[in-house]
Amino acid sequence: MTASATCCAVQGIAGVPVTVEADLSTGLPGFTVVGLTDRAIQEARVRVKAAVGNSGFDFPNRKLTVNLAPAELPKEGTGFDLAIAVAVLRCAGLQLRLTGTALLGELALDGGLRPVAGVLPMARCLRAAGVRRLVVPPGNAAEACLVEGLEVVAPLSLRACVEHLDGTAPLPPAIPGPPPPAPDGGVDLADIRGQATAKRALEIAAAGGHNLLMVGPPGSGKTMLARALASLLPDLVVEEGLEVAAVYSLRGALRDRPAASLRPPFRAPHHSISRAGLVGGGPGLARPGEISLAHRGVLFLDELCEFSRAHLEALRQPLEERTITVARVRGAVVFPASIALVAAANPCPCGHHEDAAQLCSCEPRALTAYQARLSGPVRDRIDLVVRVPRQAYGRLFDANPEEPSAAARSRVEAARGRQRDREEPAGAPLNALLDARRLLRTSRPTAAATRLLAAAGERLGLSARGFHRVLRVARTVADLAGEDRVGEDALAEALRHRGETGS
Ligand SMILES: [Zn+2]
Which of 27, 6, 114, 23 is CA-nearest to residue 65? Predict the structure, then answer.
């Protein structure tokens, strides 16, 4: 006698449907599970057996074999418990309606259902594979309800699940939660006094997708400015919002972020974070790191020079490719990592180099070493560098209203629209991602701009990379101004935002 049930595994942020097959045969009583990792098999057997017994069902006292197919797919985690238990009970003779139905969830020993990570990407995958009804633990119902066309039920226990499936006590479909509160409690540009240059750099960064470095003394407001960048990014489209929520779902961290939020995320990991915490990985099921939690939003690295060189090296590939590959014992997984990087640094170890308020107490040698670290691994992925001076106290009491983020965001949206319209219809990249050939084709600098660029190149000793960086930023400045060609003014502004560390 055999029976089967459908559930799902995840690879990266993609789901893969899994079929649980149960077979009962004559022979010595036993419970064998194949198709899982060793440790997971052991634990699943214990939980399933106890949960079935404690839910008032007889666990079949015969030779029981459970297979999770496809067998070669690495499967870890506890989300298969419910499907295994249901397949076993069906195999033992219970009449359960499972057509078009999939089951996800971990079993407690008493038969209760516990939430698992990754339900959103799994639910999306199952829906695409033709599943119409999904059974999940109550703690996962909200995210499962985000997937259109899926009827979600959320029983409290294995017993309630079985009574739903055999028709004795059908459960009503779970109702999607209330829509998330409008804009998150981030920082608005209007909350920040002065800092016109830095604010302008944020607008350029948001419009063209450029990475940004802010250099200034402690207390000058770099963190506030970085937070404000998220408020300048356009809303995500629904599909992008689901993609971001899928990453949080894999971390089981949807409580950190409303699942249906369409605002770009903001993440600010501390420099003491582990490498796996930053870029993803870790033991067991590969988990996305901060760089993926910041996907389609802002990753803020405060005190850039305090991050280890190895951590920063690990960021180089995703900054270029917009995805991060995490090496695993059994094959690599890929997580999305399309981020706006904002880094902040003090100008020197004591923080007061070129600070009007306080003298720098650093030794010249320490200062040189520090500045060398500033031009470390990710520096060549950063297009914009701005100085953030400490604000004069008088400025803090200035009564003139500052421009709110919404106004700057509408300019950003218009500039992004120009970038989209200019390039080929599908997948037009933001200016920050243009390769040299596309960059030259789309910027078409005027004669005056070309002369200015040549002169600046000579004077500053610009490398080819530095030259392209200036032109990329100038392209975005021109887009913000609604200009088709890169003119002298746009180029001059780009040159002002290139900073003086590195090329
Ligand atoms: Zn100093």
Answer: 23
The CA 59 to ligand 1 mean position distance, Å, reads: 71
Chain centroid, CA 469 distance in Å: 25
- pLDDT tens digits, 218-262: 888 999 999 999 999 998 888 888 889 888 888 876 666 666 678
User: How far is the centre of ligand 1, averaged over its atoms, from the C-alpha of 346 (Å)?
Assistant: 9
Q: Distance between CA atoms of 193 and 63, rounded to whole angstroms? A: 73
Q: Which is it for the CA torsion 59, 65, 68, 69, positive or negative?
A: negative
Q: How far is the CA of 218 from the centre of ligand 1 (A)?
A: 11
The partner residues of 107 in beta bridges, in order of sequence, read 113
* Residue position matching structure tokens 């200034």: 216
Domains of the chain (ranges, CATH numbers): 2-165 (3.30.230.10), 189-404 (3.40.50.300), 434-503 (1.10.8)
Task: Report pLDDT digits (tens) over 12-23.
Answer: 888 999 999 999
Q: How far is the CA of 500 from the centre of ligand 1 (A)?
A: 17
Q: Distance, CA 223 to ligand 1 centroid (Å)?
A: 20
Length of the chain: 503
- Going from the Cα of 216 to the center of ligand 1, the distance in angstroms, rounded, reads 11
Residue 353 CA to ligand 1 center (angstroms) comes to: 5
Q: Helices (DSSP H) in 356-404: which residue ranges?
A: 364-374, 393-396
Candidate from 47-61, 210-224, 281-295, 446-460 with smallest mean pLDDT: 281-295
Is residue 125 within 8 A of residue 16, CB to CB? The reply is yes
What is the DSSP code (8-state) at residue 344? E
- C-alpha 362 – ligand 1 centre gap (Å): 4
pLDDT digits over 132-174, tens only? 999 999 989 988 988 889 999 999 999 999 999 999 999 999 9
